Fold each of these.
Amino acid sequence: MAHEESRYSRQVLVSWIGEKGQEAIMNGTAVIIGLGALGSTIANILARSGVGTLRLVDRDFVDWTNLQRQGLYDEADARNSLPKAVAAKEHLVRINSEINYEVIVDDVNPGNVERVVAGASVVLDGLDNFYTRVLINEACVKLGIPWIHGACISTYGTLATILPGDTACYNCLFPDASSMTSPYTCDTVGVLGPIAFIIASWEASEALKILAGRKDLVSRKLMWLDLWKNEITSILTERDRECPVCAAREFPMLQQHDRVMTSSICGRNAVQVLPDVSRGFDFESTLHVLSRAFPVEFNQYLLRIHCGEHEIVLFRDGRAIVFGTSDPKVAKSLYTRYIGG
Ligand SMILES: [Zn+2]
């Protein structure tokens, strides 16, 4: 297949890839979870690189605020409110029609996460919340699948590559992540387009090393980059020998199949969202950050914001009622976007 050789020829010429590495890449499967700013660019790069199968996973749809930094989408996708996984595949097929695509339009939760990552050569983080990263970490450690954590907000971002049984896992790095909520989301403090493209490219590069059979070349540090300050730092990471996930192999979050996070409120076109805030919820910080982005009505018990056709009422303990929808997935997505996750 002469045209395939020419398509990938510049990548094959990279000395540590070569023909053998390219063949491994073309036999590999990459699962991209979250197809926003990070995931859409990761998918673009990995499709062009010839990764054999791309599994595209996202629960959200394209809107106008996405176009500034989510490199695969265009105005028609936003106008049509296409699910991101569907829109991504439509664009990717035009970029590379010779690889396989699997589309999953769903929320990732304890009940499906092992199925979502099954069979992957590598899993890439395009997420916007801690909870799902903790789930992915447990599933990937349990199944022995390498995964790449990336995140960005405002003008900075982080990256860590996790090789189960070898490097520190996400729980070694962030042991409190499962109960963390952050008032800082890209919908409250923003995100600079270039930082998303850089972190996404960095994740894709780490994935290509793994796919090409060169795990020895991945980063063993937690990397941190701030584009506005032109600062780059790294911390050498170490496994926690008492880590409940990668040492004891207990996987507590995977077992929380019955955790109730959302419930529809009958007859009111509203859904209640119950986040896990066992370590406390910082209402004042959330109010402060939201007030800088939106008109916020509040009293000592709750705050209320209007976002498009929806309205969110947030109580001091972190519980919220999302009005204007009866779909728990929509309510959970709005909660993550505006309150944090
Ligand atoms: Zn660990």
Amino acid sequence: MSISPETRAHVRVRANFACEYCGVSERDTGGDLTVDHYQPRTAGGSDDAENLVYACHRCNLYKSDYWAIDENAPRIWNPRSSPPDEHFWLSNNGRIYALTETAVFTIRRLRLNRVPLQTHRRRTLEQTAERAMFEQTRQVVEMLARTGEQQHRLLEEQQQLL
Ligand SMILES: [Zn+2]
């Protein structure tokens, strides 16, 4: 069995074209990402969409075919079963911190604090802040323009009265 093109397309769109483990997007990497079997095929994992995770090459490489062999073995975070903010906290410096044991293991195994990722996260945070500041400036400029128009109208009215 292999993943059908339809399933692959579904997984890609569902992930919003970004790695579900680290968040890097196709736009960032300049090409398609890979499809990872959360439960590896070698451990009996299926090709069903529910077992598939859209993943960048690095995350897929580091995760490899890891599978918890028993109840006590550490697990890799499954993006299918819980949202990232239940496991990870993103700091302004671009590092992510673990909130759960699963996250501790996932960060270590997938090297989610690799330097280029931290740089990428910092840049994204800065761009978001810049956009917010730009938007605020735009609103202030608009408000000033409206106030200017109102003053101009008032002045015209006063002149007519005189
Ligand atoms: Zn990734």
Amino acid sequence: MPEPLLACHDVAYTYRRGTPMAAEALRGVTLGVAAGELLGLIGPTGSGKSTLIQHFNGLLRPSRGRVVVAGQDLWAPRADRRAARRLVGLLFQFAESQLFEETVRRDVGYGPRALGLEADEVEARVDEALRQVGLDPARFGGRSPFALSGGEMRRVALAGVLAMRPQVLVLDEPTAGLDPRARAELLDHIRALHARGLTVVLVTHNMDEVALLARRVVVLHAGQVAADGAPRAVFAREDDLRAWGLGLPQAAALVRRLRSRGVRVGDALTFAEARRAILAAAREAPRGDR
Ligand SMILES: Nc1ncnc2c1ncn2[C@@H]1O[C@H](COP(=O)(O)OP(=O)(O)OP(=O)(O)O)[C@@H](O)[C@H]1O
Ligand SMILES: [Mg+2]
């Protein structure tokens, strides 16, 4: 197996370490993310998801264990931490609250300018990043980020991350608080970015998003990896999910409810799959059952 692009080895993290208020948020997390993956990271509130992803680009330093990005141990004495962390772009939860420049263009260009890039290069990156999130630079570039809709603001914040040209995109609940249309739009852009080769880690409370997008799902519980596998396998562990305080994708819950009522219907994770499974069950049911 090739070396993962990003890896945590036995990472532990304690907030306010050494004080009476110490809180152990991560308790030995080992996890590898391969180039090109789209990984869903789920877990109940307080399980350590946000703490873990802040280790991915060196914002937090582990109390124990190692974080390796592109073969570089982030906290080794002579590590080029800045180069390694540039590979990992992190979109914070409610990232639009961090927009601050007068125009969309200036905001998206903030990171590239801070890198000291030439003006032409900055502008090219801003155009590219805005297009990647479905915002026409000519239409949106000159506007104030504060005069946009919630979904647009969120996409401007994402463009700011993309303008740094990361190899790994880490998204902390990117659709939280968005209406269904803005949510669907953002998910489409995330899917397209992944299709273009970006490695994506998606933190979410929304199991439907995991079912739709992720090829692999990692469950954090009480600061540890409780499950790591294909969505189909993880969502089959109904009792464990309940114990972890997690639900099922809506489509999976639907077919299970049907089955508990005696309908012989196969498994499904998405509504498209549920529809197929239900139609197949209807076709196969003996006439008397209909
Ligand atoms: N700045 C902080 N200071 C002290 N404790 C913190 C801090 N941030 C998080 N914690 C604690 O660390 C644990 C993990 O929190 P974290 O925010 O990583 O969880 P999470 O899985 O992202 O939760 P959520 O789903 O609510 O976003 C929790 O017990 C939390 O109370
Ligand atoms: Mg969080």
Amino acid sequence: MRAAGRHQSPTDGRTSDGLVVAAHGRRGILDLSGRRHPFQIQGRRLRPVCGDLVSAEARPGSETLIVTGIVPRRNQLAREPERPGHPDVLAANLTRIVVVCAPRPPPDLMLLDRYLCAAELMGCEPAVIWNKSDLEPPPRDLADEVRRLGYPFLALSARGSAQPDGLPALLRGHTSILVGQSGAGKSSLVNALVPTAGADVGDLSGRSGTGTHTTTAVLMYRLTCGGWLVDAPGVRSFVPAIDSGARVADGFVDVRGQAQSCRFADCRHVEEPGCAVKAAVAAGTLGRRRYASYCELLAATTRTGAVHPAR
Ligand SMILES: Nc1nc2c(ncn2[C@@H]2O[C@H](COP(=O)(O)OP(=O)(O)O)[C@@H](O)[C@H]2O)c(=O)[nH]1
Ligand SMILES: [Mg+2]
Ligand SMILES: [Zn+2]
């Protein structure tokens, strides 16, 4: 983060605080008291994302503001890059993470669990949406499982309804992000909620039904019901950036709930004796699918060596 002193020179013009509502490479758009201004980044190390509060300064004769600093983040949704490097931050200062699933493309429940884990670790309230209910109702066991975890589960359709049922109530007053597989209908939901958004809506590609990656820039919209909504690019894989393998269990509420009863305080719930988590799986009180997701993410986190010091 650049020092604040930099933008106090009188010749540099006035400085203000703004909210990043679009970010793409080194450029984006700031919301300053309801008005939108293009910005550019000063300095290589600044990487503002949607949801960031930033300081920006005007330059004489230019419409484009220069972002000179980022206010420390409350949290960030970050994922491991495909090749080793810095985590890829999707958005910052979120209060709700909404995972969008649909019958097409077929839901990837491990991906769902990874987003739920990220939300828990960020201190965000997760929620799950089953979109395209016009094609197929939600699988009963999925709805039950999500609700048992204590998260809202909503079945709806972005098609044919101006305000998809129940969604405004879920988003009101929050800074939310819609995440999930490409083609699940995130941009369509944004368009239904924010008629002026014009978010790219991709056609599902080919017979495989895998989504095309239409949304590349990350955009954030002000909701008429109150709050902000981020439309992120869909992903095929997501490994949340986590500071240690031990944190994975903290992100799985059901695993965490049993872990206090494990014989060893540092139990990883894989092959340790006296593990209450494995006992709960055997007894049927902890879902096998959730436990498999936990083990799989623990392995992925260990494999990528995803160790990032706490912010
Ligand atoms: N039948 C149906 N199709 C939908 C619905 N929502 C989105 N779609 C379609 O699914 C495809 C992918 O939608 P899009 O919003 O681009 O998905 P994103 O990749 O998650 O942003 C598009 O062809 C949409 O028209 C829905 O509720 N019902
Ligand atoms: Mg999209
Ligand atoms: Zn254990």
